[in-house]
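Run log // design_07
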């Protein structure tokens, strides 16, 4: 039981303190014991989740077709949109990873041949990505609409920058 002390009496300078062992919490994200994060291995290990997500998406689509309630329908639509966006983001990430791996392989091949490795700048990488995006849009036939939207966006920005006329 803790010792009761009078509030009127001053606390002694060298008081008896019982030491309590503090629990050390371990965060696996930043701890070396958990190993190093490698996205390729992570994706291979948890690839079964993709099939589960696909099943859930199909189930939500079926529910959306059956649903009559407007609020419920809206919630299901938002959930479906979020799932598709996550899927697209994952595909984009995968493409980026594959591109990086192919560049790495090319560098290794050049190094084996005895040539100096060549590393692209961030701006050059961005230009290559943009060129690839335009090529993809051209293949799918959506390039015109994309460029029109971009023109409109830039026109709105330009209007904002101009001084207002009264």
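design_07 sequence
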């Amino acid at each position: 039981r803790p010792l009761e002390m009078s509030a009127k009496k001053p606390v002694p300078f060298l008081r008896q303190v019982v030491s309590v062992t503090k629990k050390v919490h371990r965060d696996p994200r930043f701890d070396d014991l958990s190993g190093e994060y490698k996205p390729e291995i992570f994706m291979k290990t948890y690839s079964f989740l993709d099939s589960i997500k696909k099943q859930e998406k199909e189930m939500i689509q079926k529910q959306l077709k059956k649903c009559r309630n407007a609020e419920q329908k809206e919630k299901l639509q938002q959930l479906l949109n979020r799932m598709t966006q996550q899927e697209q983001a994952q595909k984009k990430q995968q493409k980026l990873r594959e591109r990086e791996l192919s560049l790495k392989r090319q560098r290794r091949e050049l190094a084996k041949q005895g040539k100096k490795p060549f590393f692209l700048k961030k701006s050059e990488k961005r230009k290559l990505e943009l060129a690839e995006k335009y090529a993809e849009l051209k293949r799918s036939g959506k390039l015109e609409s994309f460029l029109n939207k971009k023109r409109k966006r830039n026109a709105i920005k330009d209007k904002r920058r101009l001084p207002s006329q009264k």
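Residues 37-117 form one domain.
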